[in-house]
Specification:
It comes from Furnarius figulus. It is found in: Endoplasmic reticulum; Secreted. This is AGR2 protein. It holds the Pfam family Thioredoxin_7. About 45% of the residues lie in helices and about 10% in strands. By secondary structure, it is mostly helical. It has a three-stranded mixed sheet, with helices on one face. The longest helix has about 35 residues.
């Protein structure tokens, strides 16, 4: 009987140490997002020195609590249009600087939130959401059939739309 209780005690200790290791791992990721030292995988190439949120839920939470607008980029790795937009976005110094004022999220899959696909699930598409968690339907690209689509040649429009998302925010609050 004595041996059995030793075994169960040992297993309990193993379980506890695994749980602790998991928590320690979580803490590390929190600190690295605060000040990214190395290129982050979360950026997926859209701006490695920027801080990107991991999930839509986290992004909404951060937008609400920081009172910053949220910028969501839907894209796909194997889509040439997404790749082309990503390249000009990442290389555009002013956009990268301005992006620091946003909560940022890029997604390679669709969320279940229909508000993020007001006119379809095409890529690439960029939507802005204000801290009251309202999708900014007034900030669109130049295509009437795909309101939130941007081509690489639209990069200056995207930049001015980012400015618009920040400016309207200031006047509303």
């Amino acid at each position: 009987a004595m041996e059995k209780s030793y075994v169960s005690l040992f297993l309990l200790l193993v379980a506890i140490s695994c749980a602790l290791a998991k928590d320690a791992g979580k803490k590390d990721t929190k600190e690295t997002t605060a000040k990214p030292k190395l290129p982050q995988t979360l950026s997926r190439g859209w701006g490695d020195q920027l801080i990107w949120t991991q999930t839509y839920e986290e992004a909404l939470f951060r937008a609400k609590h920081s009172q910053k607008p949220l910028m969501i980029i839907h894209h796909l790795e194997e889509c040439p249009h997404s790749q082309a937009l990503k390249k000009v976005f990442a290389e555009h110094k002013d956009i990268q600087k301005l992006a620091e004022k946003f909560i940022l999220l890029n997604l390679v899959y669709e969320t279940t939130d229909k508000n993020l696909a007001p006119d379809g699930q095409y890529v690439p598409r960029v939507l802005f959401i204000d801290p009251s968690l309202t999708v900014r339907a007034d900030i669109t690209g130049r295509y009437s059939n795909r309101l939130y689509a941007y081509e690489p040649s639209d990069i200056s429009l995207l930049y001015s739309n980012m400015q618009k998302a920040l400016k309207l925010l200031k006047t509303e609050l």
